[in-house]
Amino acid sequence: MVDRDQEYVEFVAAASASLRRTAFLVCGDWHRADDVVQDALCKLYRSWPKVDRGGNPLAYARRTVVNAALDSGRRPWRREVPTAELPADRVSYGDPAVGHAERDEVLTALATLAPRQRACVVLRYYEDLSIEQTAQILGCSEGTVKSQAARGLDTLRTAIDQTRRIGRPA
To answer: Are 145 and 134 in contact (CB under 8 A)?
Structure first.
């Protein structure tokens, strides 16, 4: 039992930053992302003995995080206004996009997407997962992933173009 717990602790230490970033990108709020990851890690701990650690436990954990993020957005008591700012008392996880001007544009544009489109875009293009992997995580067909990702990218392009047009001096 101790070895299994130790494996879980090591997995969480190695994967939590990645899971937290994914949760943030799917739900758009650092505080909610923390809650989502915590809920997902609790569920993962309960099923840890059944998780195939020889396979890909990160894929299982990522699916749990995405499902928890999508579920949390459906709850009626979740009506807070999301914030893209990382609280000052939190440790930065070395997000490679920090410092790039486009980061804020992309995060703002991501917030305009429907939850499933946002999840598809994040998993396909940020997490660099295949269509098959994304479909497996979201529990949908590959065709749904393709159409949701295409629509999401179109919406992102439109939102970013509008942001850039508004920001330019006349």
So the answer is: yes
